[in-house]
């Protein structure tokens, strides 16, 4: 949080859990690839993108087994992407929080809005 002068009021930065974000993006990506393969089998939808994806993901095709392989590849790539994004986000958040004072420091007492749970209303002990 910032006070009216633009100085840090000691708010703790939110952090992302890399494993949770990885699982979330992995499941979404895997299901998208599974649905693409099934839609291509049923209605012929997305033939060109399926062919392009099959060049990158071995075994991915418009078949039942190919759809399951695509689910696996999609999960793997989505998990790795989500994990890496969360790690980089947390690194950036850590660097930014070092520029601000820790919660309950002198900065919190200036704006009077201490979001932490230390119970001393932003005053140093």
Helix content: 55-70%
C-alpha Rg (nearest Å): 23 Å
**Beginning-to-end CA distance, first to last residue:** 21 Å
Shape: elongated
Biggest beta sheet attributes: none
Count of beta strands: 0
Topology pattern, helix = H, strand = E: HHHH
Class per helix and strand makeup? mainly alpha
Mean pLDDT: 80
Word description of this protein:
This protein has a domain at 18-102. Helix 1 (18-43) packs antiparallel against helix 3. Residues 7-11 and 121-125 have low confidence and may be disordered. The chain has helices spanning 18-43, 47-56, 64-99, 106-111. It has 4 helices and no strands. The protein is an all-alpha fold. It is elongated and about 55 Å long. It starts with 17 loop residues before the first helix and ends in a 14-residue tail after the last helix.
What attributes characterize this protein structure?
4 helices, mainly alpha, 125 residues, 0% strand, disordered C terminus, elongated
Describe the structure concisely.
The chain is mainly alpha-helical and 125 residues long. It is 62% helix and 0% strand.
Reconstruct the topology from this structure.
Layout: H1 18-43, H2 47-56, H3 64-99, H4 106-111
Helix pairs in contact: 1-3
